[in-house]
Amino acid sequence: MALHRLHTPLDEPTVRGLRAGDQVTIDGIIFGMRDKTQIEIFDHGKRPPVDLTGYPVLHTAPSLRRVGDVWEKVIIGTTTSTRMDRFAPRLFEQYGVRAIIGKAGLYQESLDAMGRLGACYLAIVGGAAALETTQVDAVEAVYWPHLHPEAIYQLRVSNFGPLIVAMDAHGRSLYEDVRNLAQDRLPDIYRQCGINT
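and the corresponding structure tokens:
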């Protein structure tokens, strides 16, 4: 397992240099978004109002408060990615996103797109919202604020993580590794429980 301190925007060689199981932290800009934003982009055909090329997307619906023209963080956590899986390949292909940060992973079509386009999935520990929030230095902009808390959030972060490379650009998924290990162990578990298969 290698350790990487990444600075955004990310380029393809950097992402292809990451391997499943590596640990990373991120400095720079990341963009937060969730279901409604991606429905606007892909189902309603609205281009994002900001260039996402090279940036990680964090699956989040943050709690923020607006003070005048400034958005202040309250708590910024991460949500489950699997329900947004259908958007991931197009985020990579059409908008140049290099990484998705979330929980629970993505499916095979997204993994295939990562291999073609040089992207990855970075897993964050569930329940770490308090820590995540301290690693967000500023909410620099909120795009499509009428969708809040599912707008697009431009977040400046420092030492954001640690994150695990759970799906890489080489076709490996830690989620699939765990599934295969569980399948391999099932016959022994059934035998120990006295279950005939």
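(Above: one complete record from the training split.) The beta strands are 3-7, 23-33, 56-59, 63-67, 70-75, 99-102, 120-123, 136-143, 152-167.
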